[in-house]
Structures are given as structure tokens and as C-alpha cells.
Amino acid sequence: MTEPLKIGIAGLGNVGASVFKLLEQNGQLLLDRTGRDIRVTAVSARSKGKNRDIDVSKVKWHDNPVEVANDPNVDVVVELIGGADGAAHDVVNTALALNKPVVTANKALLGKRGGEIISLLKKSTGSVSFEAAVAGGIPIIKALREGLAANNINAVFGILNGTCNFILSEMTRTGRAFPDVLKEAQDKGYAEADPSFDIDGVDAAHKLSILSGLAFGCVPDVDHIDIKGIRKITALDIGFAADLGYKIKLLGIARRTDKGIEQSVEPCLVPKDSPIAATEGPLNAVYVDGDFVGKVLLMGAGAGGNATASAVVSDIADVARGRALPLMGMEGGKVGVLKAANILDRIGSYYFRLMVLDQPGVIADISAILRDHKVSLESVLQRGRDPDQAVPVILTTHETTEDSIQKVAEKIGQLKAVVEPPYLMRIEEFKS
Ligand code: HSE
Q1: Whether residues 12 and 129 fall in one domain
Q2: What total number of domains does the chain contain?
Q3: What is the model's pLDDT at position 13?
Q4: CB-neighbour burial class of residue 76 (10 A; exposed 0-12, middle 13-18, buried 19+)
Q5: Pair 153, 274 in one domain
Q6: Residue 308 CA: which ligand 1 atom is closest?
């Protein structure tokens, strides 16, 4: 009989408690599938008294999470504390120094300290698995690193934050205001401890950096991601986007171009009949575009305790089977530094929301700015007429460069009749 695999869990939030439950509930199934009895032997969390709906009385409790890594009765260290620094970092470093496998859902740690982890792994016989770090329950890490290993990847993109997708879906469906829907997302356990990480695009950027690292064989590089969140999106934008045949989604996009890898997280208009537009609520959807396979789409629960626990335990099952894969899908020495393209060179079409005083000549002035920057207009929409108040004018453009569109936005913002800075979003038709 093989020895049981002893698991220590550092962090018993939503995900940690669900991992504990899953290992209990599906223990026999996991034994049948992996040949190992997987048992939690130690845990750590900030508050011992908190009601988590799990019975931790039979496992060792550590007040200090690093002691989970140090515990000789722990074979695999599951780090579910989160954050690139502090306790999470110490737990992972300690486990690797002791040559123990680490399973983590920590996107910030991988996104910001991927290079450091690769260096630590060179000196350790431990491993780091992180299926749960990206897109909750969707097995996108296994898909990229294993199922699609034969392909040169052209692009990886999609909806990577369940909280933002829930908020945008609810705002579209019900017309409710942003703060009200954010509160609901927090109550449902989708949002990060600091929800600004979700709504300002930081969480999605950490995840995109990991996908990009796997797709292009490089160290995750969150510093070269152009990040915009969803705070500025209004009911007006959602309504106009619908009139134009689009929905608004927060997308993470990493694309290989002649000039390097383009990486961005930003709200985009997507065709309303596309699979991405049909991805609603806390679901995530990730496309991978490979040179032989073409486009592959994975969709599923991107947030929430149970879905994320499914991903965490899939990594534990790999450890139980004795499988460990190179962190970024490349043998150590082959992991490169991401060559970032200049985002200003990016080509795309754009949506502009302007608030303008309804005076003769305003559209002529705007058109002149577009002409001077060689930006071609696709459509103009104006609703309402009020000589005393600003009215919304929506412009969409044909393809141009990000550089031109930024200059156009700046010039339009300087016009006297334009009463607030133009709001810009990309239109993503998923042609490449
Ligand atoms: N806050 C994250 C989200 C949870 O909303 O997607 C999963 O990483």
C-alpha cells in the first residue's frame, strides 16, 4: 500500500475551505484516480474561530502559515493566502527550500515573481503548480502547457475576471448601478479581498501575464501590460454598444506581432453574437490561437470557492501521480524574457464617447481632428437635443494605430464644446 499524501493548507478563505471539503467529499474518487490516499494533515489561517463549515479539529493548526511548510507531517504545501509578498511568498520559499511540491492559486506571486520562482526551482527538487491561478475552474494551464504544447501560439485572450464579467453582465441585463452590483459580487465570493484589484484590471493582468508566459515561453511580465479597468463604463456606453451590435467585456489579450508581444487588459466592444459576448455572469472564457490547432475556446466558472478548489485539487492529483511540469512549459534554460511590443503601435478600431455642447460646427471640428491624424470615421451616433446641456456623441473608427487614437482623443478633449475627457474603448472583432 502506498503511503498517504499529506497536504498542508495555508489559507482557509473561500478557496481553502472548499479544497478541504473537496478532498473529504471526493477522497475515494481521488484515491481511485491517483492511487494515493490524499489527506489534509495541517492548516493555517488568520482566525481559528471563524465558522468555515469544515471540521479542522483533527488536523494540526498552525498560527504561522510558514509552519505549514516546515511541518514534517506535510508532503505538499497548498498556498492559498494570496499576494506577491509577505506570508504567501515566505510559505512558497520555505517549501521549495525543503524540496516540497507547492500548489498555489496565487496569480500575483507568479505574475510578479515568476523569475524568482524559476530561479528557486533550479535549486529545489520541489515544484510549483498553479492551475487555479488563472480562470478559476477552467483547466487553461493544462491546456496550454500540455494539450497545446505542439503549437506556436499566436494569441491568447479572453475574459479573465469573474467579478468584472458579473458586474458588466448585470449592468447590461438589469440597468443596475455599478456599486450595487459590485457589492453583490463581493457577497457571492467572486471578488478579491481588495476589489479594486478586480475592477481596475490588476487581477486580470496578473492572470494574463501567466498565460502569456506559458504561451510564449517567457517569464510572466505584468509590468508590460497596458491595464484599464471598468470603473468608467456607464449605462450610456452599454446602451450605445448594444445599438452598434456589441457588448462590453473586460478582455485580457496577449498577441504575438512582428514587433513583439502586445499585452493589454481593457474593456472592449465585442460582437454581440460572439461566444465571448455570450459568456455571462462570473464565467470566464479563454481563447488560444495556435498555428496547427487553430482557435480553441475554454469557458467555465472563473471565480468562486468550489470551482477554484477543483483546479487546486487537480494539481494535487498531479503531485499524487508523481507528475511535475516545467513552470512555464519550457525547460529551465529555455524560458526567455518577454519582448514587449510598444502598445502605441497596436492597430485597432475604436469607440469614443464624447459629451459635447450641442452647437453648430462641433462635429466639423471633430472631423477635422480625425482627418489631420488620418483616422477614418465609421459611424457617428447622437441621441437627444438639449441646447443647455451636454449630449453624448458616439464615434466609431476604422482601423488605426493606438498612437493616432491617443492623439485624436487628446485634441478632441481640448475643444471648447467637449465638456469632459473623451472615453475610449477598443472594438475587438477577433479577426486574428
Ligand atoms: N476575483 C477573481 C475574479 C477570483 O473575479 O475572477 C478568481 O481569481
Answers
A1: yes
A2: 3
A3: 93
A4: buried
A5: yes
A6: 7
